[in-house]
Amino acid sequence: MATFLNSPDWDEHEWIELVHDRKSGLTAIIALHSTHCGPGAGGTRFWHYPDPADAMTDALRLSRGMSYKNAMAGLPMGGGKAVVLLDSDGTKTEAMLDAFGDAIEALGGAYVTAEDVGASEADMVAISKRTSHVCGLPVEQGMAGGDPGPFTAYGIYLGIKAAVEHKLGKANMAGVHVALQGCGSVGSGVARLLAAEGARLTMADIDEARAARLAADVGGKAVAAGEIMSTPCDVFSPNALGAILDTNGVAALDCAIVAGGANNQIARPENGVELFRRDILYAPDYVINAGGIINVSLEYLARRDGQPCTAETVNRRIGQIPDRLREIWRESAASGQGAEVVAGETARKLIGR
Hints:
The chain folds into two domains: 2-128, Rossmann fold, CATH 3.40.50; 149-288, 3-Layer(aba) Sandwich (Rossmann fold). Helix content is 45%, strand content 15%. The protein contains 14 helices and twelve strands. The strands form two sheets. Strands 1, 2, 3, 4, 5 and 6 form a six-stranded mixed sheet that branches.
């Protein structure tokens, strides 16, 4: 226990719920980092972890990231995250979703879930049969809610544009070379938005066929997953899993900007220091990728309060992401500290830490 509490990922979490339902086979972790600003909100990740200790690390780091993300986005929500541990074959059953919904309901509204890696809108619908503390549900056309991926992608696109203007002095993306890591819902959305503005795109995914299809669709180039981080480019945009900016990852970069949607991109604080030392502009992940949580949180709050919330309302809130990033970069330049340090200090003040 002492070793666990001394872990940098512990960070004084308020609540960690370990869930095991023998009948359905569900094993899950629900982590609440902070409820200072409101109920802990954050998606559920369905994933196979060969080492269960990695599931706990993921839950803790992702939960803390949601505290920061929601606070920096000005949402009346705290930070929480859940992981559901799947077998190696990725089996996910209706009974498991029922049991997970019951576990969320038992927390009495302290945690509000949504989609994350391995989850779908259909999963949220299934969970909502057992609890009302869920968002990202299908809604009528023109309303907020549903798949958060396109909203996340839109915020990242706006953030990349702001970074390019700040660092490279370019007012648009025409001819700017962006290397995208990850071609899933978010990465593909970012690629399409950038391609429409004339950006030059190189992309990679662990599913090489998916990367090739996206490259063909947007007129880009697909490379092997192991090559993307060292691709010479203007912007490296990580949109897959986190902790890729470790010592080796930072050393491999050949870019002026890192701006993408993956959570917890910087493995450890010293890696962020090295990014700053190398004069690589960094867009803190929990600021630039807030579009999805803005969407589903506003949906949840509107549904809870019986009020309308349109996609236009959500997009206006997402449109504030570039201004937050510019403020962070200005403070970074003035203080001589990296953008991730400045953003972290601001977020901790907002959640009373």
